[in-house]
Specification:
With 597 residues, the protein is an alpha/beta fold. The chain has 22 helices and 14 strands. Bound molecules: FE2/S2 (inorganic) cluster.
C-alpha cells in the first residue's frame, strides 16, 4: 500500500462510516503537496490542536462593522469553533462579504447572489468537510444558505438574533416598522426637530437584527423550519447567553453531520419547503421570503410557484403577534416558545417526516416542543391555534393585465377595505421621481388614487430595491391618510406595511405592462378574485408598446452588469440564470481537484 493509501484509510477511520473525508484530497498523503497543505492549515491556526486530523469545518462569518445586524456573529464564531473542537473537528473560520441592509446601496439584494457564489466557491476550492454559516441580516441568511445548498456539503446555520428594543418617550420601538410610522407623523407635522433627534439616539440600540418580523427574523424562522438550524435557536435574542450555547451545539453537530453524511439535498426536500411556506403564512413574515424561498428551491431543483405558495397558505392560521402584522417583537416571540412552540401549534398542517440537520425529524421536534407561553402579554407573542390573528394565511397572489406573471401582497399588513379597489394611477418612474413628487404639495392625487412605482425590479434597480412602500403623498399624509393602494415591481422591507402589490412581473425595465401605465389610467385590484388589471383598451396599449423602448441604463460594469444580464424575475427568486437546477455534473463539481497551486 502506498503512503497516500495509508492516509486515505486513516481518513476513513475519522468518519467512523468508512467514508473518505472530502478534505483528505488536500491533507492526506506523503507527497510535498499534502505536506504543504497540512502546513498551511496548521500555520493559519496556531494552537495545540493544529496537527489534529478530523473533519474540517468552515465557519463562514459575515460579521462586519458596516453591518450592525451581523455584529453578534463575532462572539458566536468562537462558540462554534469550541463546539467543533469538542467534537473532534478542525474549525476554520473565514470572512465573507456582509450584506448590511441599511448601508448597502442601492440594495443588499443586488449582492445576495454574489454572497451565494462566494460561499459556493469557497467550499469548492477549500478543504472543507462541512460548514457552519454565520449570518443574520436580511440577505446574508438566504445568500449563505443558497451557496451552501449548491455546494451540498453538510451545513448548519447560526444566526445572531434580534437587537434589544429601543425605547422612545415611554414607548417600545420595533425596528423599521415604528420608524416608518413616526416618519409619517413627522411629515404630518406631529413630531418636532427635538423629537426627531431624540429618536435617532434611541434607535442606536446596539447590535443585532431588526426585532420585528422583518426579513431577517422571517428567514431565521424559516431556516429553522426547513431543518437547517438547531431547534429553538432561530429566535434567541442578540447577546442572550443561550445564543453562545446554541452556537457551540451547532459546531458539535456540524462534525456529527459530516460523520453521518447529512447534506442539504437531504434536508431541502419538497416536504421541507411545504412546511416552510406554511410557517411563513403563520408568522405573517416578510414578502421577501417568497423570493428567497423560490431561489433556494431553484438551487436544489424543488418546484416552486406563486400558485403553490398561495394554495399552501389556505387554511393556515396566522399565529405570530409580531410587528408589522401584529403588536409584539421578536423577543416576545422567543419568550412564547420560539419556532418549536409555533411548529407544535401548526403540527396538523406540517409534514412530520421532514428531516433536519440537527438529527430529529420535524415531527420529533414537535413532540418535544413546549406549549406556547404568555399569550397576549409581552411575555409571549405566539397565539394558540384557536385564537389566530387571522385565518387563511398572510399573503395573496394576484395576476392580470398589469401583472401577467404575478404580484404578491401581504394581506396581514394591509388595510382590509382597500383589498378591492378601483382608482386612477399616479405613476412614479424610479426612486428619485417618487421621492421628489410625493413631497410636491401640488401633486394631483386623492386617497382613491393608485400609486404606481415602475422601473425598480431586478433589472431596473438593478437589484430590486426595497422602495415599494411608496410614501403617502405629503399633502394626504398631513391630512391623516395612512394607507393607499400601491403597485410596484420593487420589493419592500419586511418591516414595512400597507396595501402594496409588490414584485409585479414581468417588471417595467424589460417591457412588462407596468412600463405602459400613465397617470389617470384606471387600475382594478381584487384580492379575493386574485386580479390586478389595467383598464386601458388593447389598441391604446399596443400604441404605447410600439412607442416604448427600454429606459437608458446607467453605465454599469463589474458585478452589477453581470447581474443585470443574468438575473431572473421575482417569481423565479431573482437568482442568476446560470446558478439554478443541480445536475449530476453539478454535483461532481464540489469533488475536489487538488494539486499544486
Ligand atoms: Fe439587518 Fe434588518 S436591517 S436585519
Amino acid at each position: 500500500m502506498t503512503g497516500n493509501g495509508q492516509h486515505q484509510r486513516r481518513a476513513a477511520d475519522v468518519t467512523g462510516h468508512g467514508t473518505r473525508l472530502r478534505s483528505a484530497a488536500w491533507l492526506d498523503g506523503d507527497d510535498e503537496v499534502a505536506l504543504a497543505n497540512r502546513a498551511a492549515l496548521a500555520s493559519a491556526r496556531p494552537g495545540p490542536e493544529r496537527y489534529v486530523r478530523g473533519p474540517v469545518i468552515g465557519i463562514a462569518n459575515s460579521a462586519s462593522e458596516l453591518n450592525p445586524c451581523n455584529q453578534p456573529l463575532r462572539e458566536l464564531a468562537g462558540a462554534v469553533a469550541r463546539g467543533v473542537r469538542e467534537a473532534g473537528g478542525i474549525p476554520a473560520e473565514f470572512p465573507t462579504i456582509s450584506l448590511g441592509e441599511d448601508l448597502m446601496k442601492p440594495s443588499a439584494m443586488l449582492y445576495r447572489n454574489l454572497l451565494a457564489i462566494e460561499i459556493e466557491e469557497m467550499i469548492r476550492s477549500s478543504p472543507l468537510d462541512g460548514i457552519v454559516l454565520l449570518a443574520n441580516c436580511d440577505k446574508t441568511v438566504p445568500g449563505a444558505v443558497m451557496g451552501a445548498a449548491s455546494a451540498d456539503i453538510p451545513t448548519i446555520l447560526v444566526t445572531g438574533g434580534a437587537r434589544a428594543p429601543a425605547s422612545f418617550r415611554g414607548r417600545r420601538i420595533g425596528t423599521g416598522t415604528d420608524l416608518w410610522r413616526l416618519w409619517d407623523e413627522r411629515r404630518a407635522g406631529a413630531l418636532d426637530d427635538a423629537a426627531w433627534q431624540e429618536l435617532e439616539r434611541c434607535l442606536g440600540s446596539g447590535p443585532g437584527a431588526c426585532n420585528t418580523m422583518g426579513t431577517a427574523s422571517t428567514m431565521a424562522v424559516l431556516c429553522e423550519a426547513l431543518g437547517l438550524m438547531m431547534p429553538g435557536s432561530a429566535t434567541i435574542p442578540a447577546g442572550d447567553p443561550r445564543g453562545a450555547a446554541a452556537a457551540t451545539e451547532a459546531g458539535r453537530r456540524a462534525v456529527a453531520a459530516v460523520r453521518d453524511g447529512t447534506r442539504p439535498s437531504q434536508i431541502l426536500t419538497p416536504a421541507a419547503f411545504g412546511n416552510a411556506i406554511r410557517v411563513l403564512h403563520a408568522i405573517g413574515g416578510s414578502t421577501n421570503a417568497v423570493i428567497h424561498l423560490a431561489a433556494l428551491a431553484g438551487r436544489v431543483g424543488v418546484a416552486f410557484s406563486l400558485e403553490e405558495f398561495q394554495r399552501l397558505g389556505s387554511g393556515v392560521p396566522m399565529l405570530a403577534d409580531v410587528e408589522p402584522s401584529g403588536a409584539g417583537l421578536m423577543q416576545d416571540f422567543d419568550a412564547g416558545g420560539g419556532v418549536p412552540a409555533l411548529l407544535r401549534e401548526l403540527s396538523a398542517l406540517l409534514d412530520p417526516a421532514a428531516r433536519t440537520v440537527a438529527g430529529p425529524t420535524i415531527g420529533e421536534i414537535i413532540a418535544a416542543a413546549p406549549a406556547v407561553k404568555g399569550d397576549g402579554e409581552w411575555g409571549g407573542a405566539i397565539r394558540p391555534l384557536g385564537r389566530p390573528l387571522r385565518r387563511d394565511g398572510a399573503f395573496a397572489v394576484v395576476r392580470g393585465s398589469l401583472a401577467p406573471d404575478g404580484s404578491v401582497i401581504k394581506t396581514s399588513a394591509a388595510a382590509p377595505e382597500l383589498l378591492r379597489h378601483r382608482g386612477p394611477a399616479v405613476v412614479f418612474r424610479g426612486y428619485d421621481d417618487m421621492r421628489r413628487r410625493a413631497e410636491d404639495p401640488d401633486l394631483e392625487v386623492t386617497p382613491d388614487s393608485v400609486l404606481v412605482l415602475a422601473g425598480c425590479g431586478p433589472v431596473g434597480g438593478p437589484g430590486m430595491p426595497e422602495w415599494g412602500m411608496i410614501p403617502i403623498p405629503a399633502r394626504l399624509a398631513a391630512a391623516g391618510v395612512r394607507d393607499m393602494v400601491r403597485v410596484t415591481d420593487a420589493r419592500m422591507s419586511g418591516t414595512s406595511y400597507g396595501t402594496v402589490f409588490l414584485h409585479v412581473a414581468p417588471e417595467a425595465a424589460i417591457g412588462g405592462p407596468l412600463a405602459l401605465v400613465r397617470d389617470g389610467d384606471l387600475i382594478d385590484v381584487d384580492v379575493t378574485a386574485g386580479v390586478l388589471n389595467l383598464d386601458v383598451p388593447a389598441g391604446e396599449l399596443a400604441r404605447r408598446r410600439a412607442a416604448w423602448s427600454p429606459p437608458p441604463s446607467p453605465h454599469l460594469r463589474g458585478w452589477p452588469a453581470l447581474y443585470r444580464d443574468h438575473v431572473m424575475q421575482a417569481p423565479e427568486g431573482c437568482d442568476l440564470d446560470f446558478l439554478t437546477a443541480p445536475t449530476a455534473a453539478h454535483r461532481r463539481f464540489v469533488e475536489p481537484v487538488v494539486g499544486r497551486s
